[in-house]
Design a protein that fits this description.
This protein has 88 residues and is mainly alpha-helical. The chain has six helices and no strands. Helices cover 70% and strands 0% of the residues. The N and C termini lie far apart (43 Å).
């Protein structure tokens, strides 16, 4: 079960300075759901990348999407096996 550190982290991601009140309005099931979502894809990290991309676009020109890193899809098991077989 995640603790107060995680609660403060999602409160920051949602611009909620009152994380105790946020926790009072949230069920434990909802809190666990946010924990699993955040574990898979942290919200703050993506927001920070977009902010940096906007700064870079404003400084060096272009669109913010030009500076946003591409996310690669994970390879399937078959693709991983093929890669390992091609190495041998």
């Amino acid at each position: 079960m995640p603790g107060f550190r995680f609660a403060r982290q999602i409160a920051r991601d949602f611009n909620r300075p009152d994380y105790f009140n946020m926790l009072r309005t949230m069920s434990s099931t909802e809190f666990d759901h946010w924990y699993s979502v955040h574990r898979d894809k942290p919200l703050h990290q993506e927001t920070l990348l977009w902010q940096l991309a906007h700064i870079a676009a404003g400084s060096y020109g272009g669109k913010p999407s030009d500076y946003f890193p591409e996310h690669r899809r994970p390879k399937t098991v078959k693709q991983q096996i093929a890669i390992w077989q091609s190495m041998g």
